[in-house]
Structures are given as C-alpha cells and as structure tokens.
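Methods — Computational structure assignment.
A single polypeptide chain was analysed. Its primary sequence is given first, followed by the predicted tertiary structure written as structure tokens.
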Amino acid sequence: MELILTAAVIVVLCIILGAKLSFLIIAALALIGLIYAASLLMLCFFFIRMLFSKRYKAVFSRIGKSPKSSFNVAYYTIKGEDYPNIFPEEGFFRSKLYRTDKYCTVMLARNKKFVFDKFSCATCTIGFILGIISSAAAVIILYQI
C-alpha cells in the first residue's frame, strides 16, 4: 500500500513540476520491465537450484511458518527430518494437495535446508519456460519497432 501511495505522490510531483506525460509513461514501462526482469532472474535461480537437487521420497508432515520468512510453507519428512518447502503453501484445496497418507517425490536442495515439492517444481519450470519465451518475444518486438 505504501508503495502505491509513494508512486502516486511521485507522479503528482512530476506533473506539478512540468514533466511530460510521455516521460511518465516511459518511466512506468521501465519500472514494469525491471520488476519483470527481477522475477525472471528469481525463477531462473530457483530452476537452476532445482536442477542440482537430489530426489527423495518424502511424506507431507504439516503446514507451518517458514523459518526464513513470514508465510506458511509445507513441511516434508525425509528420513525422519522435516524440511520446509521453498515456496508458500497452496491455500486452496489444502486437504487434496497435501496428503499425509501418501509418499511423494521431492527435490532436496544441496544445502539440505529446503525442498521443492511438485508444485514448486511446476512453478519454477513453467515460469522459467514462459519467461524465456516472453523475453525472446519482447526482444523480437523491440527490434521490429
């Protein structure tokens, strides 16, 4: 909320000081591009970390607070130890998605501090592929202009 309010104050100040509307539009597009690039880099980073992780059979154990952030994550038990998932838990259909009665395959990171479950793997893979495709499309479109 504070970010939106700050952006609105900056836009109003720019208009009062006489900045052209085209400059504000270009600045907004540049900001959106930076946010997009940061999210693409994050997904690429996690995709590469996932590629170098090892597969293990695990059982979902609980939903709990992440040790490094404020959101809830799923915990999986591998050989008697609980490991948190790297991404937040899925709030919808929790009883269908996280089942304690079945083994599932997870990817345990090399530092053995977190796992990638099937939802994290899908997020990283789809995000990586769509990010590369959309980046290539953006470059092609920019060269067309």
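Note: The longest strand covers residues 54-65.
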